[in-house]
Amino acid sequence: MxxxxxxxxxxxxxxxxxxxxxxxxxxxxxxxxxxxxxxIAQVAQAGNGDKTAIRPLRVHVPESQLVDLRRRIxxxxxxxRETVADDSxxxxxxxxxxxxxxxxxxxxxxxxxxxxxxxxxxxTEIDGLDIHFIHVRSKHENAMPLxxxxxxxxxVIEQFKIIDPLTNxxxxxxxxxxxxxxxxxxxxxxxxxxxxxxxxxxxxxTARAWVVLMKRLGYEKFAAQGGDLGGVVCxxxxxxxxxxxxxxxxxxxxxxxxxxxxxxxxxxxxxxSLTDDERHAYEQLASAAKKRRAYxxxxxxxxxxxxxxxxxxxALASWLLDHxxxxxxxxxxxxxxxxxRPVNGESAGELTRDDVxxxxxxYWLTNTGISAARFYWExxxxxxxxxxxxxxxxxxxFPRENYQAPRSWxxxxxxxxxxxxxxxxxxxxxxxxQPQLFAEEVRAGLRSLRQ
Length: 451
Hints:
Layout: H1 10-24, E1 31-33, E2 41-44, E3 55-59, H2 63-74, H3 93-105, H4 109-118, E4 121-126, E5 129-136, E6 144-149, H5 160-167, E7 180-185, H6 203-216, E8 222-226, H7 229-240, E9 245-250, H8 258-266, H9 276-291, H10 294-301, H11 308-311, H12 313-321, H13 332-339, H14 353-366, H15 369-377, E10 393-397, H16 407-413, E11 417-422, H17 430-433, H18 435-446
Parallel strand pairs: 6-7, 6-8, 8-9, 9-10, 10-11
Antiparallel strand pairs: 1-2, 2-3, 3-4, 4-5, 5-7
Helix pairs in contact: 2-3, 5-18, 6-7, 10-15, 12-14, 13-14
């Protein structure tokens, strides 16, 4: 883990000063139950009542909640097996029962809790909502500040494995000049961030909040990175183009031209004018629209109906797992991780069954299945439609992503494309599956933006 105590930079002094001011108010040694996550996370309260103060957070889940979780898993009333030999009817029964067996008898949440508590975690109120974030500073003084945003069905847990490679690059075969100071927030309604009680917390408001967060931490210039919904937020940040934003790196780019979107919505065959790469992307997008977007449609229109996500651990787990990649649903890496072996020749990379359960368990303990789903309801544009972004942009295209963005579409969507690369392994959960490769992509993609 990188040294989080390196002194001297203006950003570091600003951050330390903000925390020191709260200490001086006499409150950091007294922890109170966090308002947004009763009984599982403790947040230091600012002595002067200033909720915009940067307040340390620590996680501790009462054993009674873990006992109740295991009891509920064991009490699951299972349906009959699907009537097909593939996953075309949804997450297969055998996959869910294997995951539930391990979840109830072999899984240890305390390991994830210890990892969370080993990282510098904080909460600050922005625009009336508590935002949770991990803040890890590099020991390398000239490191680039970078805010990394997770997606759905993810959380900050997705980024655990990239923290050290990005903040401590010299320990991973890279140069000190490639170092980053990392800020990894939980999206509104996710994890330990607050659950919005009014409408309006979609990608646009979140993007503006991230700018406030980085400035509050003392970063005068910074870059942004994201995949899935994190990529959506990054794209909005790019469109807003605040003067502090150096550029963005996305591994879930929004590149689909308007005429292609129109053809997809009409269910038309691929236009004859498409190149091979464009045709492949079109076929991936068409397949996803026809067979793999039911979860997004429900969350985008009727998220409150999903009461089972709050009542049943297995219902929550199956809903979170039903997310595809460029070829199959559930994503190949998730299936391979659950069974702890390659499935149909596909590997999980570095993603493990316990990684998957760490993420699902966080959703369960924070009861954020529905509040996270509402982010889709709050989103009012096509996530994949051409981004029309002019800030410097780096794009990494992983082969198992939902679709492989062609360079031709990418250049039209991002008007200042500084980096484009197609990888030979990795998928939708790239930071989880291939953390070393992912870190290399972030370094390479943003290298030209360093000042």
